[in-house]
Design brief:
Elements: H1 10-27, H2 35-46, E1 49-51, H3 52-59, H4 63-75, E2 79-83, E3 91-95, H5 99-140
Antiparallel strand pairs: 1-3, 2-3
């Protein structure tokens, strides 16, 4: 019987995701940010506001996980949730004045990391990576 090929994509993806989380913890030790908190803040720094639905679709968190992330950010005074201006069914999430500086700092750090990655792999390498990720997401739907 032939031995199956060693897994090459999923374990590496998991390790890379974990490495990003550890990098964020080192980059933002005070205040300590989880990976989910950092990504939500970076997104809000680049988009004036988002609905909770937008954040859910962007990051794919379970609704309860996203609610916990938003609760923690709101308790720190960095975001606020309010009624959406165009839909009574949606909740809008905005940065506060206190949250904007940390969100911009996180966004700049993540952007810098991505620029360093692009410098190493180039546009074609990034496009191939994104293709693999999109196929993975489709397979998991």
């Amino acid at each position: 019987m032939n031995k199956p090929e060693t897994l090459r994509i999923v374990p590496v993806l998991e390790r890379a995701t974990h490495a990003v989380a550890l990098w964020l913890e080192r980059a933002f030790p005070n205040p300590r940010l989880t990976q989910a908190e950092a990504h939500v803040l970076a997104h809000l720094a680049d988009h004036a506001s988002s609905s909770i639905n937008d954040l859910h679709h962007r990051f794919g968190h379970k609704r309860s996980t996203l609610t916990s992330v938003l609760d923690r950010l709101e308790s720190r005074g960095w975001i606020r949730r309010m009624a959406h201006p165009t839909s009574r069914r949606l909740i809008q999430v905005d940065l506060t004045e206190a949250g904007r500086p940390i969100a911009e700092e996180v966004s700049a750090a993540v952007r810098s990391l991505e620029e360093r990655l692009l410098a190493c792999v180039g546009q074609q390498g990034a496009a191939t990576f994104l293709q693999v990720i999109h196929v993975l997401e489709e397979e998991l739907q």
